[in-house]
């Protein structure tokens, strides 16, 4: 089964946004065993959209159109699909009812603008996909043996329809081999070091295969197996997952589909422990990541963001002489951790301080980071390093190092204790 | 002059990377007054690359091919261009000398692999662009009146050639129209309401044109003007920018190239005021966004992330009876704001509380949000609303509403004061 993605939106051609939707859809389709052979992007121009659809339908079994289903006049994907199919747009009262019902529920937004009524029309003969998050219905139709789907360009609305409706449909149609991917996630080891330990597995394996993917502060090893059934594919993947784990050791923080923050929350939950943070450098980023996970409040209590030296003293009680010695120091990180532990009354506290750059900060070179933990037993541990790269990279590496320190502590990895300065 | 971008690389079709090169090139071309009408992406497949080139050359004056110029066997853009042009590849000894010289300079890399010799061949009749950073020469040729350029896919190698050689050439050829885009950013009004107020401008304008772009919690209105000089284009755009501003009023938070958090920090700086936050729902997200901006510490002091009811009392002194009335309430938001103001000793404090979902929280339906500000003069104001959508969308809308409240207060927009409950 060959698929092609057609992105619609002048903002893509003006370079105002990158087409991250095409990336996501391609990854999902590849994971479902469907080959994506072409991407196209066109502007909000009826003729060019029709031209792109004609080309895509001439060479692909499935065409996914993304964008241009909104309520404004430059949203013309509906019209273009109707023109391509040679059918009129048909107004559906039940879609109007659905739209009005949504606006009633979102009463804070006010009455439904008339422009939203455009979203109640679909090309004659097309099915629609009812939106959960947004207002734009997705579209599904067949034209001369090609399946054509249209989804909104708003990323979470697009993902909802691709993941919830379209992929299951296509996967059932494709009928064949099932692909299972297992991802091992690694914190605290670089891509080339990971690759070196797995070099022979990488070069000798065909099913399952191994691939690497480095993103900010994390390396992923993907083990992909293909078989007639999901169970067979999983059974093929499992020994390779175990082998990779054994070779890499405790830098692998998960082999499940979870983020580092989810792993930390899972360990906190299973250990019945609570966590608070003290954040300088990261400005609240660790708290934001933890609380992005539903149910975080069972273990995560809060975070004292203390961005100035004065706030570190005032809110966390970091002593004057520690502050005088510099805020990007082991002593300051440790004092922040014990301060947050006591302020929030938690079992474990994590502190993060550093110089994000581009300028040096309080005597520390850009990229300098200190992370520290303190627990209710009095145990403390700190770790310092210098991260390369720009401001957001330094912050991201600090978050990863801090969360990974909590993860290791909860998993019982032996960390050398440190003592607070007098 | 119409341009088209053809990206080559199977990694794009597998979704391993987003095509940020096409975004960058499009932005640069638009800035030089060249219309980009289509993007295509194809894999490392000779036939499909030739097909994409043929299509692009049939409808564009300029075709920019990106990627596939590297030294490995799957780098076949050179071959595809030669096949499309119907000419052989010709080996150039001076390119070999250039390559060997580079490897000599980078002695740490070791001797030049033989595979790099592929990069010394170019389609017969083509010019080449000597690379500064990398090893891959760019290519330039004319085929039936279409100008075709090929550049490497490594971003900084691509940028060097586009910016240094290709754009100056095209700009000279285009004879000069310059495109200027102005972006107005809007918080607190939905896309369709914005579009309704501007409907006649949208439909009647050809130069400048108006377009909308909605992203999470924000609507952008883009005004694009085209003229012989940058100054003329700016002069054309300006009255439309002023008209849009006048119609939309104070929901426009900027007409400059800045984010909402940058606008808030700019206003804090120019007013000489300091800010702290109290975050429940957003978990540190507001602090993280503010501190992502370099220099934030001049105005932003910190944020008390208080994710549990107990932490709200313990850290911010929210009274027992307020907590008993529910943490997602006007009273709790106001008490959090005054608590943060006093804890951090700042001029203005912003508090955010809510039910992110998917479950109701403390008696409040998913999506319920309260934001409040308190300033050093004793003024307080709160605003409640229900956001639609998933957890991260609710959090994002809360951040936007909270930051926008601070922005309005600093801009002197009259907000009705509220009093704390006894």
Could you characterize the architecture of this molecule?
Two copies of one chain form a homodimer. Chain A is α/β, with parallel strands linked by helices and 422 residues long. Helix content of chain A is 41%, strand content 25%. Chain A has 15 helices and 17 strands. Chain A has a six-stranded mixed beta sheet with strand order 2-1-3-8-7-6, sandwiched between helices. In chain A, strands 14-13-15-16-17 form a five-stranded mixed beta sheet, sandwiched between helices. Chain A has a four-stranded antiparallel beta sheet with strand order 10-11-9-12, sandwiched between helices. In chain A, helix 3 (46-59) packs across helix 4. The radius of gyration of chain A is 26 Å and the shape is globular. The first copy, chain A, starts with a strand and ends in a 12-residue tail after the last helix. The model of chain A has no long low-confidence stretch (mean pLDDT 91). At the A-B interface, helix 1, helix 2, strand 2, helix 3 and strand 13 of A face helix 2, strand 2, helix 3, helix 7 and helix 8 of B. Strand 2 of chain A pairs antiparallel with strand 2 of chain B, so a sheet runs across the interface.
The shape of chain A, in one word, is: globular
Class by SSE composition of chain A: alpha/beta
Helix content of chain A: 40-55%
Q: Give the strand line-up of the largest sheet of chain A.
A: 2-1-3-8-7-6
The biggest beta sheet of chain A is recorded as: 6 strands, mixed
Distance between the termini of chain A: 69 Å
Number-wise, the strands of chain A total 17
Oligomeric state of the chains in view: homodimer
Based on CA atoms alone, the radius of gyration of chain A comes out at 26 Å
Percentage of β-strand residues of chain A = 15-25%
Poorly predicted tracts of residues of chain A = none
């Amino acid at each position: 089964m060959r698929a092609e993605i057609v992105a619609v939106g002048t903002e893509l051609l003006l370079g105002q946004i990158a087409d991250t939707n095409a990336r996501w859809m391609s990854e999902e389709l590849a994971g479902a065993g469907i080959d994506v052979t072409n991407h196209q992007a066109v502007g909000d121009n009826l003729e060019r959209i029709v031209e792109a659809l004609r080309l895509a339908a001439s060479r692909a079994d499935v065409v996914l159109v993304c964008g241009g289903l909104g309520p404004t006049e430059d949203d013309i994907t509906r019209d273009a699909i109707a023109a391509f199919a040679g059918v009129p747009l048909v107004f559906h009262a039940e879609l109007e009812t659905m739209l009005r019902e949504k606006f009633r529920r979102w009463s804070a937004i006010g009455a439904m603008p008339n422009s939203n009524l455009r979203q109640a029309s679909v090309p004659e003969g097309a099915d629609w996909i009812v939106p959960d998050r947004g207002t734009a219905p997705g579209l599904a139709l067949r034209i001369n043996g090609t399946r054509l789907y249209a989804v909104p360009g708003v990323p979470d609305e697009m993902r909802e329809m691709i993941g919830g409706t379209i992929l299951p449909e296509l996967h059932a149609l494709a009928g064949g081999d099932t692909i299972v991917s297992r991802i091992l996630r690694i914190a605290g080891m670089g891509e080339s070091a990971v690759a070196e330990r797995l070099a022979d597995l990488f070069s000798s394996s065909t099913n399952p295969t191994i691939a690497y993917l480095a993103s900010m502060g994390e390396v992923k090893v993907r083990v992909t197996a293909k078989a007639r059934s999901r169970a067979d594919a999983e059974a093929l993947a499992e020994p390779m997952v175990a082998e990779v784990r054994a070779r890499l050791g405790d830098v692998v923080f998960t082999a499940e589909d979870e983020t580092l923050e989810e792993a930390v929350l899972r360990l906190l939950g299973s250990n019945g422990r609570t966590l608070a943070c003290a954040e300088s450098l990261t400005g609240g980023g660790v708290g934001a990541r933890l609380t992005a996970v539903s149910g975080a409040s069972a273990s995560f209590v809060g975070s004292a963001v203390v961005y100035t030296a004065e706030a570190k003293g005032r809110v966390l009680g970091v002593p004057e002489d520690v502050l005088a010695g510099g805020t990007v120091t082991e002593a300051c990180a440790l004092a922040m951790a014990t301060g947050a532990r006591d302020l929030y009354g938690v079992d474990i506290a994590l502190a993060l301080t550093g110089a994000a750059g581009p300028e040096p900060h309080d005597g520390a070179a850009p990229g300098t980071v200190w992370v520290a933990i303190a627990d209710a037993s009095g145990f403390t541990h700190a770790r310092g390093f210098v991260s390369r790269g720009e401001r957001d990279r330094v912050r991201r590496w600090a978050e990863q190092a801090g969360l990974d320190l909590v993860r290791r502590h909860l998993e019982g990895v032996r960390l050398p204790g440190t003592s607070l300065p007098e």
